[in-house]
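[audit] Reproducing an earlier prediction to check determinism. Same input, same settings, fresh worker. If the tokens differ from the archived copy the diff job will pick it up downstream; this log only records the rerun itself.
[audit] input (226 residues):
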Amino acid sequence: MKKTLLIAAAALAAGVISTQAQPVYSQNVVGYVNQKFVGGQYTQVSVPLSVSSTNSAEEVFPVLQAGDAILIWTGVSYDTYTYFAQGSWLYPDGVTLGAAPQLKVGQGLFFQASATETNTYVGSVVLSNTNAPITFKGGVYNLVGSVPPIGVSSLEDTNLNLPLQAGDAVLLWDGAQYQTYTYFSKGSWLYPDGATIGVSPALSVGQGFFYQATADEQWTQNMTLQ
């Protein structure tokens, strides 16, 4: 399956979006997000909240059970960390056992649950990455997510604030393959079938996605709570 993920990313294969997450947060920017993981499936997620100063995977994913794995995209391949017990993870080399990896808010990754689980993220809401914007290199696949824990009906949403340029593509994973949407102009996206032109897809809270920019771009978010 890991090989399938790599091949699918390279081939820009099409699929159907599927994710479940609901946010609750308040003016004091503390909240929680529930997200369901289906046993045996890879789920494309992003870290929605700041849990601690280290944001270790064990703190971000308190639901962890032995055999669960997280896959972190390096830009060319995945580093896989498999959970055995508190403080005991099998590292990507398949030999080393060590502490949980640390995760950034808004970081995209894959989670593979050994059995169906619902994770409850609890922590502080980060409203922007203004001081540390994300740089997208042209032609490179970036596995990312929104820094504020928001769901949007369109990837053109101003709170998401993607630096959309004609030819940029977003890849969404459904558990088996990718659905690729290519941006042309406001309200005009090429759909995964390679023929249909339509409006942008939606994005759920805590859902990660691949972003491929046609040229170097910077992504800056700065959301204001009402």
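[audit] rerun output stored. Observation attached for the diff report: DSSP finds two helices and 17 strands in the chain.
[audit] end
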